[in-house]
Specification:
Elements (H helix, E strand, L loop, with lengths): L5 E5 L5 H16 L5 H10 L2 H9 L4 E6 L2 E10 L9 E8 L8 H15 L5 E6 L3 H9 L3 E10 L2 E10 L1
Parallel strand pairs: 4-5
Antiparallel strand pairs: 1-2, 2-3, 3-4, 5-7, 6-7
Length: about 170
């Protein structure tokens, strides 16, 4: 896959259909076997085009990665929503479709997010990852993340441990 025509831009409401597809594809690949099956399917079903259209209108930044005129990833981020990570900014979600993973797009996207947050006075950034998502854990360590917290996410009666990373 060529990465020569890559752009990162704010999501628009007309991106909603493709964002729904990207969410479906990335979450199935990342969380199958980690998040209980029915719960995962329900989460994916809730994030249809209408949800993404509303998300693009909200104040919290939502950006997309385009490669060859198609959306292949996204990220949402903003001011930290909790106190455990002790950061000003937080990455809520960052995903690249499986066909485009391993090409450096995640690193580019993460760097762009950190730069945007720093420009807004949020130089210290945090992110949570499910502890069983080994690829995400390796990604955050590779980006210089330091483990600063642990917690548990409760989904469909399952307790899913998560790890908090801090950058900056």
């Amino acid at each position: 896959m060529s990465t020569s025509t890559i752009s990162i831009r704010r999501a628009r409401t007309e991106d909603a259909d493709r964002l729904s597809d990207v969410f479906d594809e990335t979450w199935r690949e990342a969380y199958r076997g980690i998040i209980p099956g029915i719960c995962l399917e329900q989460m994916i079903a809730r994030r249809g085009p209408a949800w993404w259209c509303a998300a693009a209108r909200r104040g919290r930044p939502l950006v997309v990665v385009e490669a060859a005129d198609t959306i292949v990833g996204y990220a949402s981020y903003g001011r930290t929503r909790g106190s455990i990570l002790r950061t000003a900014g937080e990455v809520d979600e960052i995903y690249i479709t499986p066909a485009y993973q391993g090409l450096g797009l995640g690193r580019r996207l993460f760097r762009a997010i950190r730069n945007d947050l720093a420009d807004r006075g949020m130089g210290r950034v945090g992110v949570w990852s499910l502890a069983d998502n080994e690829r995400a854990l390796a990604f955050y360590v590779g980006q210089g993340g330091i483990v600063v917290g642990q917690s548990v996410e409760r989904l469909a009666g399952a307790l899913l441990p998560k790890v908090g990373y801090r950058f900056g």
